[in-house]
Design goal:
Shape: elongated
Order of helices and strands: HEEEEEEEEEEEE
Largest sheet: 5 strands, antiparallel
Radius of gyration: 24 Å
Helix content: 10-25%
Number of helices: 1
CATH class of the largest domain: Mainly Beta
CATH topology of the largest domain: Immunoglobulin-like
Mean pLDDT: 81
Low-confidence stretches: 21-39
Structural class: alpha+beta
CATH architecture of the largest domain: Sandwich
Distance between the termini: 76 Å
Strand order of the largest sheet: 1-2-3-7-6
């Protein structure tokens, strides 16, 4: 009887160890933010992301709007937007033709800033944001509308939403489709 208990115990231990090994082999390491990994993060609003100190800044462009064509989100390392309360910033836009405009970023909603474009041609913009007494900055480039006006992405539920690149609808989160 003692032999059977020991034998059954060993078999049970072997089964548990094999099961644990199988479980660990199925563990998805890609969903974690392990330090030193080379994984890239998807911008939460479909824009371009740049590192700015301990933050990320995302620029979302919508050149089809008459105003607020540029939106900027200051993001934590987990890509969650930071409240724009008490945060100020400036933007300097340099167009392909050499003209330059410097303006103050305008808070919009409670988690992002907007800026206006004067032209739809290619540009480079330098963003400077003051957060907790420190300046963080990032430089973005955009190709403008140029000859690439054939690509228009819109939401099937909100046809008034139009963007020049794929992304998600800011109203409902649905994937934008190409028109």
């Amino acid at each position: 009887m003692k032999k059977n208990i020991v034998k059954n115990g060993i078999q049970l231990l072997a089964i548990l160890l094999l099961g644990y090994g199988t479980l660990m082999a199925q563990h998805n390491h890609g969903s974690h933010n392990h330090g030193g990994s080379s994984q890239s993060h998807q911008p939460p609003h479909g824009g371009q992301m740049k590192e700015a100190g301990k933050y990320q800044i995302e620029m979302v462009t919508n050149l089809f709007l008459k105003k607020d064509q540029l939106s900027f989100y200051l993001l934590k390392s987990n890509l969650k937007p930071i409240s724009n309360e008490g945060i100020t910033g400036t933007i300097t836009i340099e167009y392909k033709d050499g003209s330059t405009i410097t303006d103050t970023l305008l808070a919009n909603g409670d988690d992002h800033f907007v800026a206006q474009l004067k032209k739809t041609e290619p540009f480079t913009c330098t963003l400077k944001i003051q957060v907790k007494g420190k300046i963080v900055s990032a430089v973005f480039s955009h190709s403008g509308l140029g000859s690439n006006t054939a690509n228009v992405y819109t939401c099937s539920m909100h046809p008034e939403i139009k963007q020049d690149k794929p992304g998600t609808c800011p109203k409902c989160g649905m994937k934008l489709i190409e028109k």
